[in-house]
Write a structure and sequence with these properties.
255 residues; alpha/beta; 9-stranded mixed beta sheet; 5 helices
Amino acid sequence: MSEDTEQNEPSLRDQLFDTNTSSLQRYQALVLGRSGVFELIKYELIIMLCSAMPGALGVVLRKSLFPHLLGKCGRNVVFGRNVTIRHGHKIELGDNVVVDDNVVLDAKGSSNVGIRIGSNVILSRNAVLSCKDGNITLGDNVTVGMNTLVHACAGSDVQIADYVIIAAYVYVIGGGPYKTDRLDIPMKRQGVVAQGGVRIEEDVWIGSSAQILDGVNVGKGSILAAGAVVTRDVDAYAVVGGVPAKFIKSRKDTN
């Protein structure tokens, strides 16, 4: 492997495939993001005790215990069943947040800040917020629909402002395409091209199955139609749709 290729490899990946470390150390690098027997025992006991517990008792136990896995947790936060938390010390939740069943909050990375979620936010069932050395920020009063993926790689953070509505099966991808210039090594080993991340301004409505790719800024008050593939910036109050997404009309147009 060349020096250029090695530089493109995330240090977390190096930890996970380091044969000089034990399986337990690699597990902690993936799940906890820090060492220490106490942290590992605390995580395992809390997850084992209440992660999958059904009913009101499960809700009460998770509300009481899950905040101990997080960097910060506000008041009146509700956790559903089988919520996955990785690198929890880099996850912060505001007040009145609902984290539904099977949600993934994955802040992993060796140098990132992680996931920051405001108040009055709903993360619907099976939603995934996933970092790979990137950062994800959700403002207040955001709704994230079922089976939606928000992903942030290094150099491509995702920022979602207040009052954004995200429907089901949406993909917000802060991470550029793989480099493909060389033929002598796999594309996966060539690294990716970071394009600056995704920024979604306030009061945006994103329709079901839409995709927002890296490097895109979505303007205030705009609407992305269901199934739209957004590859370039969207103006404020614009309505766009199609593959790739094109301008349809402005919400300011009263005619």
